[in-house]
Amino acid sequence: MSDEDATYTCSPTMRVMPVVFFNLLVYFVIGLPNAIIGAQFVHNTLGFSTAIAASTISLQYIGTAMGRVIVGHRIDVFGPKAVLRWGLILCTISGLLMCLAALIPTSHLMGMNDTARYVALAVALVSRLFIGWSESCTSTSVTTWNLRRVGPAHSSVAISWNGVTSYGGIAVGVTVGQWLSGLLPTIKLLPVGIFAAALGICGFIILTFYKAIKPLPSKGKPMSFGLAVKKVLPYGAALAAGSVGFGTVNSFLALYYTENHWTGLGIAFGVFAACFIFMRIFVSGQIDKHGGVPIAYMSLVTEAIAMAVFCLVHNNTGGLIGAALTGAGFSLLFPAMGTMAVKTDGPEFHGILIAAYSIFTDITIVVSSWFMGGLRDHMGWGVMFAVAGVLCVSGIAFSAAFSRIPGCGIPKNTQ
């Protein structure tokens, strides 16, 4: 008996928990090295610039975007468990590569010389690609699997809990990673890599006890990734617009506070995460009641207001309010438009549709961090936040315009 054929006595939320656990595990691993691998290892230990250190973190998003292109189709053909298995294997490899990168500068064969520095950097960068590929395999597989478990009536539940475990896992992972790095002060990345690899192996073992669901038979040719992108374009455009605001705060809030000599950065990030998680848990049910598009448009307006607060209220309080509004606004955007994106074709194509939809935020976060950084350097914080706000609210117009293109954003049951 498949998951979607089973008779459940529990709520849709409880149905997604056994599978969304793997999303929590992988995002926890993603968070483990975030405070260590860039600033402490690449910059302090290896001696590379802050720009290279920052790119070490963002490379994960590039790996995730690369993985989306092939992961969705493989889920539809082989089933989510098969692809999730690869996600956990890639997670383990990423941890092992972190261990190798940490050991290279201390090796008696190489020592700390230019060759060792560049080899260690290369291994660290490859580890980031592997965790990015792991993320694409895991998050897309888990979402697709849970969509089958709860059915179309509760699609927002399946998508929302992926976000809760994603950001919750990263937040806890960063804290644990900082603690682990203190166990070996001279090789801080090593215990982080060991723990990451161990978690990947444990997740792989646990997955073997799960019963796979069979892929749904396709009634036609396999959907190409390009066609999937076209189908979800109106919803992906709105997601990309909102991702600009989220990416700007995520990338620059720490620098914004540091340059202004404000205290309470940890509180600001905590408020951001709390508002994000609160909205996902307690308000996401409104998506199924009122539809994804109006909720998404309200989310974009909320993010635009957040950017206006950053522009106009230039103090610690403004930073807290802006962070809170950004977390609350971006929280419901992904599931709101995601529930619409998966309706553009049958459930047998959910994997590739989710992958095509998700790539909009992966690419936007990478590009916007570079673009917004340039704006800040040349025109200041106010202009950077103002442009981010305009781009957020412009997502409403882009979404509406793209929905008029034939073949874009049309639910299958209306075609």
Automatic annotation (TrEMBL):
<dbReference type="Pfam" id="PF07690">
    <property type="entry name" value="MFS_1"/>
</dbReference>
<feature type="transmembrane region" description="Helical">
    <location>
        <begin position="155"/>
        <end position="180"/>
    </location>
</feature>
<feature type="transmembrane region" description="Helical">
    <location>
        <begin position="379"/>
        <end position="402"/>
    </location>
</feature>
<feature type="transmembrane region" description="Helical">
    <location>
        <begin position="232"/>
        <end position="256"/>
    </location>
</feature>
<keyword id="KW-1003">Cell membrane</keyword>
<feature type="transmembrane region" description="Helical">
    <location>
        <begin position="354"/>
        <end position="373"/>
    </location>
</feature>
<keyword id="KW-0813">Transport</keyword>
<keyword id="KW-0472">Membrane</keyword>
<feature type="transmembrane region" description="Helical">
    <location>
        <begin position="321"/>
        <end position="342"/>
    </location>
</feature>
<dbReference type="InterPro" id="IPR036259">
    <property type="entry name" value="MFS_trans_sf"/>
</dbReference>
<feature type="transmembrane region" description="Helical">
    <location>
        <begin position="295"/>
        <end position="315"/>
    </location>
</feature>
<dbReference type="InterPro" id="IPR011701">
    <property type="entry name" value="MFS"/>
</dbReference>
<feature type="transmembrane region" description="Helical">
    <location>
        <begin position="262"/>
        <end position="283"/>
    </location>
</feature>
<dbReference type="InterPro" id="IPR050171">
    <property type="entry name" value="MFS_Transporters"/>
</dbReference>
<keyword id="KW-1133">Transmembrane helix</keyword>
<feature type="transmembrane region" description="Helical">
    <location>
        <begin position="192"/>
        <end position="212"/>
    </location>
</feature>
<keyword id="KW-0812">Transmembrane</keyword>
<protein>
    <submittedName>
        <fullName>MFS transporter</fullName>
    </submittedName>
</protein>
<feature type="transmembrane region" description="Helical">
    <location>
        <begin position="83"/>
        <end position="104"/>
    </location>
</feature>
<feature type="transmembrane region" description="Helical">
    <location>
        <begin position="48"/>
        <end position="71"/>
    </location>
</feature>
<feature type="transmembrane region" description="Helical">
    <location>
        <begin position="20"/>
        <end position="42"/>
    </location>
</feature>
